[in-house]
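for the writeup, i need someone to sanity check this before i put it in the appendix. the sequnce is what the collaborator sent (i think, or maybe the updated version? ugh). structure was predicted straight from it, no edits. if anything looks off just tell me and ill rerun, i have time this weekend
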Amino acid sequence: MMKLLPLLSLLFLVGCYYDNEQDLYPATPGGGCDTLAVSFSTEVWPIINNKCTSCHSGSFPSGGLALTNHAQVTAGLANIINRIERNPDDPLLMPQGAKLDACSISKIKAWAAQGAANN
């Protein structure tokens, strides 16, 4: 029985496997921000909905720009890109108070460059 214990211990150690996140999910080229095929519904709309619609919706949207659906976002796309790319100290930066992260900006711009499809 004592001779079997080291063998079982060795099998237990060999049987353990530790998954490394980098091995399982390799980084996307360009710093982890995938902009190859950006979807409105899964990538752009969540950004707009979380960061913009609190001010740009309802009966009197801020600046007269409503952003509650694909058509409105597409119609205001040039203005949106202009505002999200501004410097953090620019009073015209949107959303006010905190610049979007670089990946979110890249996704919106890539989606626009890819034709701004309603996908």
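The mean pLDDT is 85. Residues 78 and 112 are 9 Å apart (CA to CA).
thx in advance!!
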